Amino acid sequence: MSLPDETLRKILIQIQQTAIQSQRAHTLAAQQTSVKERERRILQLTIEEIGGIKEDVNLYKGVGKMFMMVPRKEMEKELKTQEKELSDDISSLNKKTKYLEKQFNESQAQLRDIFHHAPKQQQ
């Protein structure tokens, strides 16, 4: 059983577009993961620095163009919450990256199968 040339061409185009979209989305997700990991590391370093300060010291938090005095405990709690959110984001981006990588590999395998099993034309 052989598919008409036009149908085969449409299928090939669709598979190729899926592969390209998957590869672009994979690259974007990897970049986002890198940015979030950098932000998380900065937060971790900030939390470590704050941990070395006395308990009764107030800290200042940047809000727009001004600074607000914030108790140390409140600042630590806020930073740890942000770190957890970033960790969750990184985890979901890693899952998305793996899915997109799998989708891209499947598209590539489909293309290889189609070309491998395509009938050879005599010239």
Automatic annotation (TrEMBL):
Keyword terms: Chaperone
GO terms under cellular component: cytoplasm; prefoldin complex
Gene Ontology molecular-function annotations: protein folding chaperone; unfolded protein binding
UniProt xrefs under InterPro entries: PFD_beta-like, Prefoldin
Highest taxon of source: Eukaryota
UniProt cross-references to SUPFAM superfamilies, sorted A to Z: Prefoldin (SSF46579)
N-terminal signal peptide: none
Family label: Belongs to the prefoldin subunit beta family.
Protein name from the UniProt record: Prefoldin
Organism: Gymnopus androsaceus JB14
